[in-house]
Write a structure and sequence with these properties.
Chain lengths: 283, 332
């Protein structure tokens, strides 16, 4: 109980964590309630006049086709959080499974998994994603999460493997093994809790990475085929001449939101690192 | 050193093997009929018999009537002959020709931006670790930069410097009125078009390297050898130099690990600036459902990243004496 109080004590005094989580909360709220406030559907041709700068009727202006940018923005924000949560979550999960298995078992299994990790690590994730996405005629948001999660795990697996390596020779793990505990249970009860803080950091970085990867895929035209996303908004803006026409309200919000969310995640990451790791605390 | 190199080459060979296998596998085992989809989108032929002929041609090119293992072997054979199929979007140019035309632009954009950002970011990070005031300013800025999606910074730069200020062109690699020649006018025009995409890649990567180096230097200055040197009364400059030399090694490994992300960044930057490299081709290929071109781009990207990885490994041998003595320092 005392330890938890200590973590909370430092957490509430860590500016990086507070600012980071504050920004995330604001955007999360916007993604949650925003669509209810949007007067139009993302793809509806709401404004008969076409492109217009922000006004009281169209809060973020309208696109070249007269679509409401605010509606696209809040709905795209929702997709961004879903990709981060599911894609990043899956990446962390696969990384944990492979990292724990390789690190705890060692031996031949470790050799094989490590070689496999190194190979997947060298292949540029985006290249694989784009060839898969290109061949699928209909793509959903969930599919995008699945692909991103299944290609993003290698560095997480490597980091978790290294941590597991250093933990598995500790006395309490030996003790658990002597008492006849099953390997799966040892990992779950003895090893994982001791690197919980580390796993949280991995998840945050995977979350941010998944958002950036999804933005890239969407921007290049391989995102979900039936939904709006922030990357897709930027693609439309570029393809339909928002730059030469000076329609800044079309391309500034989506990029700004991604930068703010991912930046806030990084800031939280550094802040949490300082909380968990006493050596890094600013005195 | 030989062990280190053999290991690396083995991994790269396996990777290339896996990549080619993926390249072969995906079109064959994805739901749907890629050839039909492709032909449905192409306007090369309009009447039914011509479409059937095209279909047969592509089916033969894929070799779909042969047993699977034969198809796989043929795929490799064609690959070694440099045959990647024929682009439907730029019909009838072979894919390899299309890619050969695009690659110089990629090299021209990627190599300077990667190397300069790495060099400048490392030096700036090392300086930032030294001064509290600089650190307080550089660190948050660098975090914002690494969080910025590549295309968005590209869009902002193109809009501000290209449209609002009108200083730079925002599309193409050179003006439409010019023909590629080795004249001063053309070279200057080329650089004029190159600058914004280059700057956009440079700025984002710069942030990442600066953060990495700053953290590394602080870590190294806390290490035992630094404290020992301080205790001996060694000059600060000497300690800093040792710290820098040690901190640069993980940064080299980091470069190898980040290559994939940087290349992806270059792809979308090229789309923003209509810069005629692989990224721009890829967008056109996707929009026109040109599968051969997409697969060709995939192979070229992977080949490029593998070659770059190998070059980094060679550099590592020069920089880190441990790899030469057979003590694999950094994890292989």
């Amino acid at each position: 109980m005392k330890k938890r109080n200590e973590v909370l004590y430092f957490a509430l005094r860590n500016k990086k964590l507070l600012i980071g989580s504050g920004i995330i909360l604001i955007f999360l709220l916007l993604a949650w309630v925003g669509p209810a406030f949007a007067k139009y559907k993302p793809f509806d041709y709401a404004n008969p006049l076409g492109a217009e700068p922000p006004s009281t009727e169209y809060w973020f202006g309208t696109t070249f086709f007269g679509q409401d940018v605010f509606s696209q923005f809040v709905n795209g924000l929702r997709a961004t959080f879903i990709v981060g949560l599911l894609g990043g979550g899956l990446g962390t999960l696969v990384g944990m499974i492979i990292g724990f298995a390789a690190g705890y078992r060692g031996g031949i299994l470790d050799e094989i998994l490590n070689a496999f990790t190194n190979i997947v690590l060298v292949i540029p994730t985006l290249a694989v994603l784009l060839i898969i996405a290109a061949y699928l005629q209909v793509r959903s948001l969930l599919m995008e999460c699945l692909f991103i999660g299944l290609t993003a795990w290698p560095w997480a697996a490597r980091a978790i493997r290294a941590q597991t390596f250093s933990l598995r020779t500790r006395d309490f793990v030996d003790l658990a093994r002597l008492s006849g505990m099953k390997p799966y249970k040892i990992v779950r009860r003895e090893i994982a809790p001791n690197m919980m803080s580390y796993l949280v950091l991995v998840f945050i970085l995977q979350f941010g990475g998944a958002i950036l990867t999804a933005a890239t895929l969407d921007f290049i035209g391989l995102g979900p085929t039936n939904a709006i996303s922030l990357g897709l908004m930027m693609q439309y803006a570029v393809l339909w001449g928002a730059l030469p026409l000076g329609m800044w309200w079309w391309f500034v919000p989506p990029g700004l939101a991604i930068t703010a969310i991912v930046g806030a995640l990084y800031s939280m990451n550094v802040g949490l690192d300082e909380i968990f790791n006493p050596k890094l605390r600013e005195m | 050193m030989r062990r280190y190199l053999t290991r690396k080459i083995l991994i790269y060979t396996l990777t290339f093997f896996l990549a080619v296998t993926i390249d072969w596998l995906i079109p064959r085992f994805m739901p749907g009929d890629p050839i039909r989809n492709m032909l449905a989108r192409v306007s090369v032929a309009s009447n039914a018999s011509a479409i059937q002929m095209m279909y047969d041609y592509y089916a033969r090119l894929f070799g779909l009537d042969l047993p699977l293992w034969q198809q796989y072997l043929n795929f490799w054979k064609a690959l070694f002959q440099g045959n990647l199929g024929i682009s439907t979007y730029l019909f009838p140019t072979p894919v390899i020709e299309v890619l050969k035309r695009a690659v110089p632009y990629d090299a021209f954009l990627l190599i300077p931006s990667i190397l300069l950002a790495w060099y400048a970011g490392n030096n700036f990070g090392a300086i930032a670790a030294r001064s509290k005031r600089l650190d307080n300013f550089i660190l948050p800025l660098s975090y914002v930069l690494t969080a910025t999606p590549y295309m968005w910074l590209g869009i902002l730069l193109a809009w501000f410097f290209g449209i609002v200020l009108g200083l730079f062109p925002i599309a193409g690699a050179y003006s439409f009125s010019l023909r590629p020649t080795w004249s001063w006018t053309f070279v200057l025009d080329l650089l004029h078009h190159w600058f914004l995409p280059f700057a956009s890649l440079f700025i984002i990567d710069f942030g990442g390297w600066a953060i990495g180096m700053r953290n590394m230097i602080i870590y190294e200055l806390e290490a035992e050898y630094s404290r020992y040197l301080t205790a001996l009364g060694a000059p600060q400059r000497l300690i800093r130099r040792y710290a820098f030399n040690n901190a640069i090694l993980p940064q080299i490994t980091g470069l190898a690990l980040r290559l994939g992300v940087i290349v992806a960044g270059a792809l979308v930057t090229e789309v923003v600036f209509s810069y005629p490299g692989i990224g721009y081709l890829l967008l056109a290929a996707i929009q026109n459902q040109d599968y051969f071109l997409i697969q060709g781009c995939f192979l070229f990207i992977i080949l490029g990243v593998l070659i770059a990885n190998f070059v980094i490994d060679l550099v590592y041998i020069v920089v880190d004496p441990r790899t030469r003595r057979g003590m694999v320092g950094e994890s292989a």
